[in-house]
Amino acid sequence: MSITHPQGFRAAGVVAGLKSTGAKDLALVVNDGPTFDSASVFTSNRCKANPVLWSQEVVKDGVVKAVVLNSGGANCYTGPDGFQTTHAVAEQVAARVGIGAIDVVVCSTGLIGLANDRGALLAGVDAAAEQLAADGGTAAAEAIMTTDSVSKQVVVEGAGWSIGGMAKGAGMLAPQLATMLVVLTTDAVVPAAELDAALRAATRVSFDRLDSDGCMSTNDTVTLLASGASGITPTPADFTAALTQACTDLAMQLLADAEGADHEIAITTVNAASEDDAVAVGRSVARSNLFKAAIFGNDPNWGRVLASIGTTDAVFDPADLDVAMNGVWVCRNSTPHADPATVDLKPRSVSVTIDLKSGDHRATVWTNDLTHAYVHENSAYSS
Amino acid sequence: MSITHPQGFRAAGVVAGLKSTGAKDLALVVNDGPTFDSASVFTSNRCKANPVLWSQEVVKDGVVKAVVLNSGGANCYTGPDGFQTTHAVAEQVAARVGIGAIDVVVCSTGLIGLANDRGALLAGVDAAAEQLAADGGTAAAEAIMTTDSVSKQVVVEGAGWSIGGMAKGAGMLAPQLATMLVVLTTDAVVPAAELDAALRAATRVSFDRLDSDGCMSTNDTVTLLASGASGITPTPADFTAALTQACTDLAMQLLADAEGADHEIAITTVNAASEDDAVAVGRSVARSNLFKAAIFGNDPNWGRVLASIGTTDAVFDPADLDVAMNGVWVCRNSTPHADPATVDLKPRSVSVTIDLKSGDHRATVWTNDLTHAYVHENSAYSS
């Protein structure tokens, strides 16, 4: 159900023939209104894919009536011809759905530098438009999968309104949203400006704090569509809370399905001088290949945590840091404390707690371990 | 020969018993003068090991008469007792060699958070002092190895003077010198201020541009000792050139022996608006796990190069980038050019050239691929 759980949306997922496997590879989501307010965030990578360049223009007026997404090719660094492919896809959606192309967000994912077959895409749009249905959410969620092993969907219920969401992404997950595609829908009545504020608040503490492998994508897009079909206007606080819950749920699904990972790692920094400090410290640990390889080896190597903290500009005393792994304080006052052998790292879920003793702010950053399977999957992706 | 090739130096490498393997684990290098000028650079990690905290004070007056190094334990995050161990080792060297402890640089490498056995260290110093010899360079170079598979040594000949060097490091190699220990010797007559300028110039384009795995150590130290025993004063330009050659040679030895690597990768950024831009672009690619895993898989995945460039603030037009791999321009004007299948990535040595078309500066950053062996070695290091 996911994105078609809220009222006012239809969706479809079809086989356009871009994927060599013959799996579904084109999704279409249409907002039937009565409102068409929207908000979006995109990758901050300066090397942006053609669909991002297109969609950034589409979303400027706050009105989006459809989102079309394809897997099987990122349409990134494919030149002017690739941009024309994106434009043609938007025009085709517009013609089939009866809207303007300038209200159609386009998303693509897959290999960079590979031109997508325009004919296959346009035929796929035709097929998807035929199959648009109020129960098409799951088919759409399946059509955007690449190396994902499962589709990611969520529903959060409000008081008479709801939020639905779907996401794809299993690699290139990084701070500024990376090859992650997310579509969120709601039947609440929320104007575009409020959607934007809520979306930025929600992504800041969810997708933005997921750093699976430190790599930033060229195609990341998160688009939120509001149909207003419930006729209900929630308070901004209620809506933001529900949206944050939906984004966090999808982020945890992405984390759990990250390429080749054996562990999901939550790094929580407490007593930081600022929230930015807490995020910077968590991120530095999340990006340490040595730390991530140690977790893969079930090795509570807290020295690699301290070595990462030391690379940041956060406020702390290097001689007075505490570190816990899975609740065991293996380091107190920057010296060995509990026996690391008492830390059981076999469960998939690992927590690292870092006490900076410099304030009262905190933040959690999520990452995965660095495994043989990660190396294997990413050394063989395009071959 | 290495560090004992220049006149005026004696060295030794002995078994102190810190390594469980019974291999050599303590090295001593003594400058017999007549000059005792020196220069040093240390890790920029804020979480510094006890020997770094000690040695930073030692080097302040430009006079260093001996360097004592141990493998088998980093003496980092071992608390005040660990600092006292470092101090005791310096005092022991001073007593045995007949100098002041404040002229003794101490270096340690190995696991963080592990207290070194002080008694074993002091006995090791006694043994090393007994064995100091004018041909002890190789034994010293062997004693500082940890996961290194070979010792790293270099000799560069000047006109009547020379430079010798030894290095260790096979993981945690990162921009600001990371668990890399390097001792450089020369019998040239060079005052401390000139040594400092030459060392900073040499490390800036050698060790500082080596980014094997993006992790920054807590213990990195590079110390340069000048005995003046040749009686010859080279020009600053000649000395800096020879020192740069020595440092670059050692850096390439470190690169070639990086933990688990299958490829040495040289990323050269040309036509950059500044040297800083060129380094930032090269470093961003060197730190992309996805790019590094692709090289391991012999996959010329230039899309991952562009995705990394896009994360930097360097001056460039995202729509006009050229990328070559092993001399084949797989991307021109940010669009596919030569067939990637024509790039042969089987040789260990890989070159990536990035043309930013924004100026006339260039820089090379070196890294390794991300392999199963890297993950294995670093998931099992302390267990």
Q: What do we call the CATH homologous superfamily of the largest domain in chain A?
A: L-amino peptidase D-ALA esterase/amidase
Q: Considering DSSP H and I runs of 4 or more, what fraction of the residues of chain A is helical?
A: 25-40%
| Overall CATH architecture of the largest domain in chain A | 4-Layer Sandwich
Strand/helix succession of chain A: EEEHEHEHHEEEHEHEHHHEEEEEH
Query: CA-to-CA gap between the ends of chain A?
Result: 35 Å
Structural class of chain A: alpha+beta
CATH-defined fold name of the largest domain in chain A: L-amino peptidase D-ALA esterase/amidase
Spatial strand order of the main sheet of chain A: 13-12-11-14-10-15
Form type of chain A = globular
Number of helices of chain A: 10
Largest interface: A-B, 63 and 62 residues
Please report the first level of CATH classification, the CATH class of the largest domain in chain A. Alpha Beta
Oligomer state equals homodimer
* Radius of gyration of chain A, CA atoms, in whole angstroms: 21 Å
Number of domains of chain A: 2
Strands of chain A, count: 15
Q: What is the averaged pLDDT score of chain A?
A: 91
- What can be said about the biggest beta sheet of chain A? 6 strands, mixed
- Could you name the ranges of chain A where pLDDT drops below 50 across 5 or more consecutive residues? 171-178
